[in-house]
Design brief:
heterodimer; A: about 110 residues; mainly beta; about 0% helix; globular; B: about 110 residues; 7-stranded mixed sheet
Chain lengths: ~110, ~110
Amino acid sequence: GQQVMQIPQYQHVQEGEDFTTYCNSSTTLSNIQWYKQRPGGHPVFLIQLVKSGEVKKQKRLTFQFGEAKKNSSLHITATQTTDVGTYFCAGRGGSNYKLTFGKGTLLTVNP
Amino acid sequence: DVKVTQSSRYLVKRTGEKVFLECVQDMDHENMFWYRQDPGLGLRLIYFSYDVKMKEKGDIPEGYSVSREKKERFSLILESASTNQTSMYLCASGLAGGDTGELFFGEGSRLTVL
């Protein structure tokens, strides 16, 4: 079945440093989504990427979808303590609408 | 405000008990999902439903069943709870279609099976 791998599992940064998490799928995806889960909270949708090579920005967050639609990344510029949480990618295959989540990257930020 | 409500935030059950986890959404979404979340394993899909009375197995359906009698309600049933089903259970809903967009999650139900 479809598998979505996400690295790294953990990342600790100093406030102001950049952060990137990577997502790779075993199969071509129709789209990929990113979610953020704050400690003690539930996942909250950040964005969806659909097109090959797509790049989207939300303030300090930059999301990319690979040309082959099998990988994606989330980059945060100049992290802040409010960025703390677990970031999940979630991919949807072409023939169904089931979302498969990566295991997530836990980001901690030292002030 | 969109809302997905899970009936219990915390439950403690004994091995062998039947457990019902209820989820209600007020957004008229066709699709509803049950995931479990475990440390280091991320979110794993148990079952999902794309319409009333319709259901499909996810990646880890063993030991679980579901019920969708009304569009707004999706129930997860553990017929005979076991200790390895101790976990955080997350319900989610979303619009129908091949590119359905975002999922809205409930607050989660933390189940402990003794």
